[in-house]
């Protein structure tokens, strides 16, 4: 395949010829554009440089530091408002934050929507009590809940949190997240294909906005998107180009 062509890792595998195509397919509806820009330009949220996820998967960029967006109270409030709107559309009873990155955002969503708040522990959490509840805060038993997290990717973490909520009798009706990373996932769990998911931006949206505002060099952006959506193997010679582009 020509190195200027990119194939999105999604069920329909769309071929991209140049950056104009990337911009077209990652375009954000105008009412959300300003919010995406504010998120993408949070200091330290997007960082160039090759990294590894869980000491295994090679990445062309540092993992997003989504928690940096929580440092600005006005931005956190504004990021939460679409979540509150989504919650009311789904007739949600309780907002549930996923430990740990989803808890601050979920708290803001609950406040913006005037809804009860709870948080769900990470699967496998061992507390100080013999039978410590998996969910703390408002009761979720028999109630419609919106799970809030900072990101969703393959959906494996979502499946695990859904199991924890189900064990407490909750009815999970949707997910709200800052960044939807399914556009670069190698595979997506069934729950992440069928459950309603609302996000501020996709991962490619964030990278495009960061590039447009000078945080990423255009050459770094082009190479990073190629590596992410085509899942370069570790031996791909183009990895050596990333430090030069950065």
Architecture overview:
- 37% of the residues lie in helices and 21% in strands.
- It is of the alpha/beta class and 246 residues long.
- The strands form three sheets. The chain has a six-stranded mixed beta sheet.
- Helix 4 links the parallel strand 5 (94-98) and strand 6 (117-120).
- Helix 2 crosses helix 7 (203-212) and helix 3 crosses helix 4.
- The protein starts with 5 loop residues before the first strand and ends with a helix.
- 39% of the residues are buried.
- The model is unreliable at 1-21 (pLDDT under 50).
Topology:
Elements: E1 6-7, E2 15-16, H1 19-25, H2 30-40, E3 48-53, E4 57-61, H3 73-89, E5 94-98, H4 103-113, E6 117-120, E7 135-137, E8 144-152, H5 156-167, E9 171-180, H6 190-194, E10 197-202, H7 203-212, H8 218-230, H9 241-245
Parallel strand pairs: 5-6, 5-8, 8-9, 9-10
Antiparallel strand pairs: 1-2, 3-4, 6-7
Helix pairs in contact: 2-7, 3-4
User: Uncertain regions: pLDDT < 50 for 5+ in a row?
Assistant: 1-21
**Rg of Cα set:** 19 Å
Helical proportion, percent range: 25-40%
What's the number of extended β-strand segments? 10
What is the N-to-C succession of helices and strands? EEHHEEHEHEEEHEHEHHH
Number of helices: 9
The outline comes out as globular
Strand content: 15-25%
Q: Please outline the major beta sheet.
A: 6 strands, mixed
Summarize model confidence as the mean pLDDT.
87
What separation lies between the terminal Cα atoms? 24 Å
Can you list the strand order of the major beta sheet? 7-6-5-8-9-10
Quickly give the structural class.
alpha/beta
